[in-house]
Amino acid sequence: MQVPFYDIKAQYTDLASELDAVVHDVISGGNYVLGPHNKAFEEAFAKLHGVKHAIAVHSGTDALRIMMDAAGIGRGDEVITTAFTFVASVETIVQTGATPVFVDIDPATFMLDASKIEAAITSKTKAILPIHLFGQLFDVVRINEIAKKHGLIVLEDAAQAIESTHNGTPAGNFGISAGYSFYVTKNLGAAGDGGMITTNDDETDEKCRSIRVHGMGRERYYYDHLGYTGRLDEIQAAVLTVKMTKLGEWGAKKLVTANRYLSELAGIDGLTLPITSPGNNHTFHQFTVKTSQRDELQAHLRDLGVPSMIYYPVPIHHHTPYASFTPTWSLDVTEEVSKQVLSLPIHPHLTPEQVTHVIESVKSFF
Ligand SMILES: Cc1ncc(COP(=O)(O)O)c(C=O)c1O
């Protein structure tokens, strides 16, 4: 049996007639730039996340970049984050001219360890940019307490946290702004690239809307900010609005698989299963286990037709463009976790037989 790690085409099959119709509507309508589908998608997304404003942009990376520009982050500033993330979280900090300051992660959640943040704060620290990783929220309460105490802003990297909540409150409500990604493999994936910024702050909303169109103000060809071509394509907005209608059903199916993994793989010596922090829901963007025999397990699974992925094999500061940001303190947990993590297939179109095969394959290794 060959288990697919993702099944993007099956998402199309679920919604084929609706998707074909909206794509045709956009192409035949000729309203390609920031048209009605953008507006409808922004409104639906803001409602889903209980936020005042949602600003659709070209990608999750653009969301982070625009949020940071809107927050005035730049040369001379330090931004606290982690080295255990997708590169975009850090690349965008560096692109503003600011310095990323890596703080170690929690060994159980793989996210920013709040207890280590204060030691990294200096007079230059302007923001904390934690990442909601793999489908659950970072330690939103403690991180916001620290930010408040030190007068810092919090920017949420919510690329992997669509519909994730803490005590029922969705991502996007724990910082000045949050950036989401609709990259094809995300829980809500575009037919290409897409992203969203959410904020409850009117000034941030105004700035982000302006920066995504070259910093243009209310009047055409008058510029208030340095900006980008950062808009979301109208076709993607239309596709995403349709796909949003399936989020609940697809999320529930993923949860069934996650719960089977959690119960049927429990108690295996040498295998650590993901935990969900108190108050969080987990939307399982990834189902990530930990084992000191990671590479051997991955090879064993591959031989049995079970693909797996390593998110993330090499901490960011070990890559050439980021080596100069290696901190003076240890990132031991980051280093260890990146050698041990393995993400198992989890998507809404896995069959019960495929899930059984994944479980049996993992069990047969141990
Ligand atoms: C944590 C994180 N941040 C940022 C991004 C960037 O998003 P995009 O690929 O849409 O630019 C991604 C996803 O790819 C991500 O996983």
Element layout with pairings:
Elements: H1 8-14, H2 16-29, H3 36-48, E1 53-57, H4 60-70, E2 78-81, H5 88-96, E3 99-102, E4 125-128, H6 140-150, E5 153-157, E6 165-166, E7 169-170, E8 177-181, E9 195-199, H7 202-211, H8 234-244, H9 247-264, E10 287-290, H10 294-303, H11 332-340, E11 341-344, H12 352-365
Parallel strand pairs: 2-3, 2-4, 4-5, 5-8
Antiparallel strand pairs: 1-9, 6-7, 8-9, 10-11
Helix pairs in contact: 2-8, 3-8, 4-5, 4-7
What key phrases describe this protein's structure?
366 residues; alpha/beta; Aspartate Aminotransferase, domain 2; Aspartate Aminotransferase, domain 1; seven-stranded mixed β-sheet; two-stranded antiparallel sheet; 37% helix; binds pyridoxal-5'-phosphate
Task: Compute the separation of the termini in Å.
Answer: 20 Å
Stated plainly, the CATH topology of the largest domain is called Aspartate Aminotransferase, domain 2
Across the major sheet, the strand order is 1-9-8-5-4-2-3
What count of structural domains? 2
Task: Supply the CATH superfamily name of the largest domain.
Answer: Type I PLP-dependent aspartate aminotransferase-like (Major domain)
Mean pLDDT, all residues: 97
Give the CATH level 1 class of the largest domain: Alpha Beta
Q: Name the ligand types.
A: pyridoxal-5'-phosphate
Order of helices and strands: HHHEHEHEEHEEEEEHHHEHHEH
Radius of gyration: 21 Å
Report strand %: 5-15%
Count of extended strands: 11
- How helix-rich are the residues, as a percent range? 25-40%
